[in-house]
Amino acid sequence: MIRQHLLPAIAVLLVSACTEPVSTSGTLDPVAAPPPIELEVLSTQSWLVTGDDALVEVRVTDEELSFQLGDLQIELNGTDVSGQFRQVEDRTMQALLDGLPMGESELSARLTGIDEAARLTITNWPITGPIISGPHEQPFYCQTQEFRTVAGELLDEPSDRFCSVETRVDYVYWSELDQRFKPYQLQFGGLAPFDIAEIETRGRTIPYIVRVETGTVNRAVYEIAMLHDPADGEPGPWQRSAGWNGKLVYTHGGGCRGGWYQQGALTGGVMRRGLFEQGYAVVSSSLNVFGQNCNDLLASETHIMVKERFIEHYGVPVYTIATGASGGSYQSHQTADNYPGVFDGIIVGASFPDVTSATIFTVADARLLHHYFEALSPGEFSQEQQQAVSGFGSWASIPNLSRGAARLDPIFETGALPEDQGGEVSIDELRAVLYQPGQGGIRATVYDHTVNVYGEDPDTGVAFRPLDNFGVQYGLGAFNAGLVTARQFIDLNRDIGGYDRDMNHVFERHRADPFARRRAIETGRILYGGEGLAVTPVIDYRSYTDHAENGDIHMIVHQFSTRERMRIANGATGNHVMQVGGQWGFEPGQDDLAELFRLMDAWILGIQADTSSLTPRQVVSANRPFELNDACWDTTGPERVKIEEELSYAGGGRCGDLYPTYPTPRHVAGAPLANSIVSCHLRPVNRDDYRQPLTEREWAELQVIFTDGVCDWSQGDVSGAHHQGTWLSFGPSPVNRIN
To answer: Which one, of 57, 50, 56, 76, lies nearest residue 733 by Cα?
Structure first.
């Protein structure tokens, strides 16, 4: 089994020789030598075990010590469980311990002739969760009966209020005739289907049969898929499928709008032919689709629990890659940073750093601008001027992103324009219980869905918001470039206003709740980039949509914001690669994504094999394959041409000409590229901010508009908050519990 030496070991109790203590009193009590044994929970952190079982390992660390397996006595809560262990390496034993009681258990191991035992506390939680995400959201609608398995059947009705169903296994095969997956059943006489295809993987040709396990964890439906012929028997931690390369890919679904109060009826997709061809196992869950669960903390908790299921059923993977686009990128980035060790590399597309800052800041500002241009000042700004104020590469992105602000708005209004709509839900049962002012109901917003993080107003039960536009000088860059007049700039900032708690437009600017602002930064809801991501290989690919005719939220600036956060946190970004304009698939001629997976494989394996004295960050950069670099594709000619050059927000080079980067409204207002500031420090208005002339009257008006000051973006967030570390818990686990 290959082990990582860069990321924290999972729940490991290391017992090693210690230096002799020095006595200053003339006497010294004897100190017992520690036992030469290590105990480790392989399937998860030792304090976050779920479902009453855990894959554990016992290692004898003294290489000079001669022993036999019978010399090792292993107990769980005082009961001898030595017989459950099997030897997997010369000095290593493993067992899948089941029947764990709720709460804490003690695993101990001692060698014959050595009195001292090595001990490890294992804490078991319900498989229904929660473990670190805080109290379950209510109401919560189960959808198992809507979930269609790979075999084409619907899952059963849930057996409890936690949306649980019995775990099932289905086999499907790729039909050479029909070119699709079909249920696998032996024919008369025990023969395989006549149209079963073959697949080449790991240098072998095998029947193209896929085993898919479906079950529920943490109120989510999960799926695990891998190549496996049922004739080979059931796979397990010590009986690996011949078709599996030992490596795991965790897929994610995108979206955000409408992603709350539900289990979800699909996963991020596990039937990935291109990944099967490379030998990967593939896993996902319904709470890792952001269109069903727009909460990265709950997504991270689900990652932890689903991966635990995988390891207990199939063994420890060589590594795990997270992949997903848009909302899938949020999850990949934030789990990799906040819960290091869950993922060993991430391959993301159409990316954002997170949902709380870059995305929400942009859609909230877009709705304010759209409202101002259409309702408050119609006809006063040309489309070109509106676009200059927004910064977007397409004017249509203003109304498009205004519609995207529905994720912040709790109120659905019959007849409202899409650009002003809110209260989005995905299932009919939720529409009947939506919030209305004065009547109560569920608030379908990102903030209320993440109330365990942000807290709530004790009087109203409304979630606090880390959302602020106080001091923001909208259109500053457009004014300084001479694209809008002083009168337009002044009127815009005087009248643009803000949002009340229900996202109604109000004259006053909106301010962030101090508690929510601090929580967003301290707990990684706003991506930090300096924890797990500092030593995680990242490949960020995308198609270019900044010029989309109908507008698009997936702007290339957001991947530069992610890189900038990593640069600020780590001083370098050698572990971050960006590519744009490729053919993102696995088929011949459309295989740029397949190439990224092959290169990520080489990158991670190089890191794991590195025994140099370099720092972990240096090791990650040093092992990046030489052929993996920033790049873009020129598709303007008869042949696609790959151009390898560093991609930059500032542009330049052939890639910058082909795929220009445009700012968001915050960037036009002077915000830094990282775009991670919730509430800016304020300073008095200064004539030096303005490159176009202002009359004395206009100057006086600006001073009145910004009586409290304008943003001094150079000072960072006014809270002074900093990321508080990894593996944080919001309960019920008390380990690393956030205050």
So the answer is: 50
